[in-house]
Design goal:
The protein is about 30% helix and about 25% strand. By secondary structure, the protein is an alpha+beta fold. Helix 3 packs across helix 4.
Length: about 400
């Protein structure tokens, strides 16, 4: 199950074919460049009851081994479908916790997990007097992903500006209801950040890998850039991190399927930032193949079909740079691609935004320019290769013109 524009569809289709399994894509748009979407089932994710019945009718004569969601937007519907088909899954209530940051925080606090102090606020009529947390704070939408709308504020003026920007972002997305009307505020947690990729098997967390994020993420926005694996953490720190993530999975009630977690090692120990019942997003799943010599999507499909994921011997260090959008405008061209590709240890450079399309930085933006992948004998050379390749790229843009610009 996937939104029509998901990066993950082709990867899961290829993995299923490699495992000798047929696949049926359930998506929310028949107008897609991906053939598997056009040949699959089209439903409206915003009408889950009708979508569920449509899918069940289509599957009536088929033997289904597993169902899985590629992205956050279809996790809850996927869980309900698996429940109706009596297949391994996470309960819908657990899936909801991974999509509503405020509910997730409440579940973690009730379970005694290490969590920042937080406060849910209503956007309407909001002013700084409603905030009871000390600065600095991080202001977040309840449901958006990939750091979109996540803003640090160090004083009352910055807090109000952050709330107004989030309000505008939510308005542009068309989100309605509770998540449109509220936001979450948390105390800012200092410390290096890590991504943890794993799998739940019958309620037990199994680690696949830990990604280091070597660049400090201190705000005011929190755009993720470099991911590298294996981690430089010592065994004790790794165990602390994994133990905390496993506890958080139990607090959410997750039982089966992939897990992607973001956490910081703070002065008071590991602290969860985000928890999703899906794999790592974008093209970053390729790092699993580079590092563990197995495709992430194949591990997920096997796990959902009852085969406990087993990873082989680790290969060299592997890393990715999610190329950030640093300047708003219309992309004209990308220069230096050949030079970047020829950088020692670089495996690939992918540009995912075509010339003529608008570039929107965080916190309003929801995409990356592309990805740089590298693999070297050790962490330091992998990191250096990514930075060197990125330095060779130049993104030529022009201003976005509008009637307002012309009138001015």
């Amino acid at each position: 199950m996937a939104p029509s524009g998901s990066y993950r569809i082709a990867a899961y289709t290829a993995a299923a074919q490699a495992l000798g399994k047929s696949i049926l894509v359930v998506s929310n748009s028949e107008h897609s460049l991906v053939p598997d979407v056009a040949n699959g089932i089209t439903v409206d994710f915003d009408q889950p009851e009708h979508a569920l019945e449509t899918i069940l009718t289509t599957l009536a004569s088929k033997e289904v081994a597993c169902v899985l969601a590629t992205d956050d937007s279809c996790v809850a519907l996927c869980s309900r479908l698996a429940d109706r088909l009596e297949l391994p899954h996470n309960k819908p209530d657990s899936a909801l916790l991974t999509q509503r940051k405020d509910l997730g925080r409440e579940a973690l606090a009730q379970a005694g997990c290490n969590t920042p102090t937080f406060q849910r606020l209503t956007l309407a009529g909001l002013d700084a007097s409603k905030l009871t947390l000390p600065y600095p704070v991080v202001v977040k939408p309840l449901g958006l992903a990939a750091s979109r709308g996540v803003i640090r504020a160090d004083n009352d003026d910055e807090f109000i500006v952050a709330c107004r920007r989030i309000d505008a972002i939510l308005e542009s997305t068309g989100i309605t209801g509770f998540s449109r009307e509220h936001l979450l505020v948390e105390t800012y947690i200092d410390g290096l950040e890590y991504a943890i990729e794993g799998f739940m098997v019958d309620g037990e967390f199994r680690l696949l890998t830990i990604f280091d994020k070597p660049e400090p993420l201190s705000g005011p926005f929190f755009e993720e850039t470099y991911y590298l694996t294996p981690t430089r953490l010592n065994p004790e720190q790794q165990q602390q991190l994994v133990t905390e993530v496993a506890s958080c999975c139990l607090a959410y009630g997750l039982e089966q399927g992939p897990v992607h977690a973001e956490a910081r090692l703070s002065a008071s120990g590991p602290m969860l930032l985000e928890l999703a019942s899906r794999t790592i997003g974008g093209q970053c799943g390729q790092l699993i193949e580079f590092s563990l010599q197995q495709k992430l999507e194949e591990l997920v499909i096997q796990g959902m079909c009852g085969v406990t994921p087993e990873t082989g011997d680790r290969a060299d260090s592997a890393g990715v740079l999610m190329i950030p959008i640093t300047e708003a405008g219309i992309l004209k061209r990308v220069e230096g691609l050949i030079e970047a590709m020829q950088t020692e240890y670089v495996r690939d450079v992918e540009i995912h935004i075509n010339p003529g399309y608008e570039l929107i930085p965080l916190p309003e933006g929801a995409s990356y320019l592309g990805f740089i992948f590298a693999q070297a004998p050790d962490f330091e050379r992998t990191y250096a290769a990514l930075k060197s390749a990125y330095a060779k790229l130049r993104f030529v843009t022009q201003p976005k013109w509008s009637l307002e610009n012309l009138a001015g």
